[in-house]
Amino acid sequence: MFIKCPKCQTIYQIGDDVITKDGLKMHCQKCDAVFKAFPGDAVKSPQEQEQEKQNVAKMFEQVIPSASELFGPQNTPPVRVMHVTKYKNTINYLLILALLLLVGVLVYALRYDVVRYAPRMEKFYQKFGVESVYDGTALEFSNLKISEESLNSLSKLKISGIIKNPSGYTVNVPPIRIVVYDANQHQLLNTTHYLAAKRMGAYYQLGFEFLLTNPTPQQKTIQITFANNE
Ligand SMILES: [Zn+2]
pLDDT tens-digit profile of 177-204? Predict the structure, then answer.
């Protein structure tokens, strides 16, 4: 079929099956115009147009011998053949699809690094239900101190320490589980403490301090762990 550039009137010949009802984006190689061609935009070939003109001229010539001069010299515009095929379009779509897929795979594979440098991206990953922050399994306790304090004549157990993130990634801060046993290994207390900070940056340290009430004066064993997955 033949499509005419709306700007410079250059006629392009393209395959009949290339233009769908959704149209085909075309780029005029002569004047750089970009336009969308639809099946209904098809024009007659320059040869056909010229033939029609000649037919009309012949009709007039039967009446007026010099009528053909009225129709001017033959100036059939050159036809450019544009090699557009559906196959090429499919290749382009496949390339774009492959590129999008590659970007998707990278965005997924590098999610921990992405969130490390752009914490706001965590919301993006959450939309897709993808965990982009490591859980706190890499966290470590250090400088743990346990002391008994008397406050307002009430004995309290003070537990303080530092939580270190030795990993190069932002991690979730899990709650801290504190279990107190007496000398006979009976559980006296089992509490879970949530820290104000929900995230810890790479190589960060975080100090904490808890005051527990009701400790007994007996010899005690205190177990401090991260309460992951709870
Ligand atoms: Zn043009």
Answer: 888 888 788 888 888 888 888 888 888 9
Distance 27 CA to ligand 1 centre (A): 8
CA of 33 to the centre of ligand 1 (A): 5
- pTM value surpassing 0.85: no
Report CA(56)–ligand 1 centroid distance (Å): 28
**Full domain range(s) for residue 203:** 136-226
What are 133's strand-pairing partners? Answer: none
The answer to whether residues 11 and 77 belong to one domain is: yes
Quote the ligand 1 centre to 48 CA distance (angstroms): 21
Rounded Cα distance between 149 and 225, Å, is 22
**Same domain? 84 vs 140:** no
CA of 11 to the centre of ligand 1 (A): 8
Distance CA 47, CA 198 (A): 76
Ligand 1: centre distance to CA 28 (Å): 5
Cα–Cα separations (whole angstroms), residue 82 to 85, 92, 183: 9, 17, 91
Question: How big is the chain, counted in residues?
Answer: 230
Q: Indicate whether 149 and 209 sit together in one domain.
A: yes
> Is residue 154 assigned to a domain?
yes
